[in-house]
Design a protein that fits this description.
Length: 593
Amino acid sequence: MSDAPPVQTPSAYAAGAPRTRLAVRVINAGPSGNNNVYPDAVLRAAVPLFDGVRVFVKSDAEHLSKGGKDVRNLIGRIVEPKFVPPAGSKPAGIDAVLEPLDPTDPMVRRMTEAVRQNMTGLFGLSIDAEAAYRAQGGQRVVTKFTKVNSVDVIVAPGAGGAVLGITEALGATFMDVLSPLEIGRRIERTALCAGSKDRLISNLEEADDVTEARLTEAINEALQQEEEIARSVSHAGKVKGLGSSARIIEAEEDKQGRMLDAFFDPQDNSVRSIRECYVAITGDRDITGRVPRHGRFSEALTTVSFPDVLGEAIQRRMLTDYRNLGIYDVWRDLANIVPVSDFRDQHRVRFGGYGDLPTVNEAAPYLPVDSPTDEEAVYRVQKRGGTETVTLEMMKNDDVAAMIQVPLRMSRAAKRTLSKFVLDFLRVNGTIYDGKALFHADHGNLGTAALSGPSIAAGRLAMKGQKEKDSEEAVGIPPRFLWVPDALEQTAFDLFRLGTNNEASFVQSLQWQIRPVWYWTDANDWCLSADKADIPSVEVGFLDGNEEPQLFVQDNPTSGSMFTNDVITYKIRHVYGGAITDFRGLFKSVVAA
């Protein structure tokens, strides 16, 4: 039994006013929306702790922060708690009666009217309790309740707490059988969608024992099913509504995510403390790095996994920075992109061409043409990545500068690595599919002249004169891009700039696009490439089409490095590969120093 003092009987009762009380579901058995698990046996044993517990009206934020315990928010107490086994689609749990302090209280009247109008889904009940638990599979499995502080009326319950119906004095309940017309009228006034209303009316219209309580329970179940579907489609929150209008109620995890997004956003100064974020999300005010074994359980929907929430925020900030680092996107002018489904060899077969078609004389047979042979490039995608840690000291010391740099450093490293992987095909001049270097005398795409008007013209002619495999016909496709180290950028620009002459020179009329490469250290070498749509020279494949890096939480607070070293470890992973698929669209001049 609770040690709460008895609630005094209001004068309204003494005057003979009806003692309207509310039948409620306090908590469901099984997993909650917060990764807490309440076994049937544990709830059955906890029933006496709920008898006489105070009921407060709180905002969801007050409930989650354990605040809002003000006598002005007190509306009554829980009485007659009992464990109810599962029935049909309704899970097991603790049902009880909410006995109001004053039946004329505005909130009590709202809840009563919500029952009468089948709108009980507008309210929820959530426990504020202390319990022992064990960690299992990323969940907290409650082993014993030690104290129930209150039951709170909130908006977004996480463990099924709800108002079920109205109970009158002496235990008499609304048991009058409703007519089909009344059933249809009440269902039509609910916030259910049209399809759910039709199904519910169809299910109940032939029953001859639909009471007020049964109809209320059926409507609540239908509303709960709609909310579960909405949560599976979007993590943005629950859809609530009156009639045809609806609004999105932001879930607690989204509020936490927005708080961390603001912290990492350099343009947003509303949150400047990583310690503040950590405490707000975990409730670990002393920065211990763990949740106490005997914790306080609040069943408003939220998340208690700081590593996950922080990881998601870092991922969002990392991808924002990744997309904005334009300097590293130059490789996209060189390579074609494809999705790759696995880590096995990727075979890219390119066939040669046919020779000119011969003339066929009158009545003469058509003769077979020489079939072209093929060339095959092979590559595999590979994993690239690493780990980064967030330490307990960083939280305790509120190390803002270091934390803000984490997503920026990660995004820059990932994008730079990818760009260098592709551009190194030009820089390194490695062996390709035919066993020769990409730029080779036998390929007709290797020069030695320094960058100048004449050498550019010569490179252009070499590319246009490339021979199609087997047919030996000139492809006739000119370059579109000029690739140079930063040291040659000005020289390249001046070659294409119109001088004092009113008429452009031949090179100035070409209108190629210059692509300086920041990391090329050879100050003299330069390259040409054709439009990748004309000659697919380089292919880059991304595993499952994921062109952007992914971030993963590697440890949890009870095992791994968080347990042994007081750190949360994140893993960044980027999976891709590529190869040269045709040397004919590329030219390089390797200039002797």
